[in-house]
Design goal:
- The chain has eight helices and ten strands.
- It has helices at 45-53, 92-102, 107-120, 136-149, 166-183, 194-200, 231-247, 257-261, and strands at residues 2-14, 17-30, 34-38, 60-65, 68-69, 77-80, 154-158, 186-191, 203-207, 214-219.
- Helix 2 packs across helix 3 and helix 3 (107-120) packs antiparallel against helix 4.
- The longest helix is centred in the middle third of the chain and has 18 residues, at 166-183.
- The structure holds adenosine-5'-triphosphate (ATP).
- Residues 12, 14, 19, 21, 39, 41-47, 192 line the site of adenosine-5'-triphosphate (ATP).
Length: 264
């Protein structure tokens, strides 16, 4: 698996006003990596992720998955939404089976994968419940394993923990990590939470509010599970917080500078 975003731009025209949200964005994600797009509100993270998912098109540039251009949604890219987007009329079991049925996976294989995923997410015994009968954490875990059930090449997650409070968020990050470590699917996640980015990611790509310019592509070289109070962890945190402050700086960049900042 190799995902690459090449020279991607997105322009919206609202009431005749041109709004360039992304301009000349370049990066790649390698097989098995957990990569996070971190940036201030409105910098274009969701726009970028939804273009990769194929929910909307780029104005210029391309998204390549294993060298093939993708421009429409497909089962090779799973998506986890902030509000979980579970089907409320389906049980946990039916929600998780849904992507496998769409992929026409044989029944026996489906049942086996279902049990595997339920165990991974510690949801055994909950398969008959409907989403509204689940806690926030259970909904999040169900959404995560439902996205994994279709065996996507890459899992795209848009602020998957955005709807939960601070303390619960840390617990869910640990749960997400433990499921991900067992499954090892390539992940590209959007967040504006520095701590979440450092705790979960192999790489953090920092975007600026200025046309989604990439300010830094930072490898997080810490053993898992990570100690949030560790010296090196805190150094990463201070560095990224400072970078985010810079990311908010909205003055126009010198022409051509964006290209220097793009780290492929
Ligand atoms: N369909 C659209 N039409 C016009 N403008 C849009 C559209 N979608 C997004 N935008 C604009 O693009 C910019 C980037 O939005 P986007 O949601 O990608 O940012 P974000 O970084 O994900 O923000 P947040 O962290 O707050 O979710 C915003 O200024 C937004 O108003």
């Amino acid at each position: 698996m190799n995902l690459s975003v090449e020279n991607l731009s997105k322009v919206f025209i609202n009431d005749g006003n041109v709004h360039t949200v992304l301009s000349g964005v370049n990066f790649t994600v390698q097989e098995g990596q957990f990569v996070t797009l971190l940036g201030p509100s409105g910098c274009g993270k969701t726009t970028l992720l939804t273009i990769i998912a194929g929910f909307q098109s780029a104005t210029e540039g391309s998204v390549l998955l294993n060298g093939q251009q993708v421009s429409t949604p497909g089962p090779d890219r799973g998506f986890v939404f902030q509000n979980y987007a579970l089907f409320p009329w389906m049980t946990v079991r039916e929600n998780i089976l849904y992507p496998m049925k769409r992929r026409k996976m044989p029944r026996q294989q489906r049942e086996q994968r279902l049990q595997e995923l339920l165990t991974m997410a510690q949801l055994e015994g909950k398969e008959g419940l409907y989403p509204q009968q689940l806690s926030g954490g259970m909904k999040q875990r169900t959404a995560f394993i439902r996205a994994l059930a279709g065996s996507p090449e890459v899992l795209l997650m848009d602020e998957p923990l955005g709807a939960v409070d601070f303390q619960m968020r840390q617990i869910l990050q640990e749960e997400l990590e433990s499921i991900w470590l067992k499954d090892q699917t390539t992940v590209l996640m959007v967040t504006h939470d520095v701590d979440e980015a450092i705790y979960l990611s192999d790489r953090v790509i920092v975007m600026s509010a200025q046309q989604g310019n990439i300010l830094e592509d930072l490898a997080i070289k810490l053993h898992r599970p990570r100690n949030r109070n560790g010296e090196k962890y805190i150094k990463y945190k201070v560095h990224l917080m400072n970078l985010l402050k810079k990311a908010l700086h909205k003055e126009p960049e010198a022409p051509g500078k964006e290209l220097e900042l793009c780290l492929a």
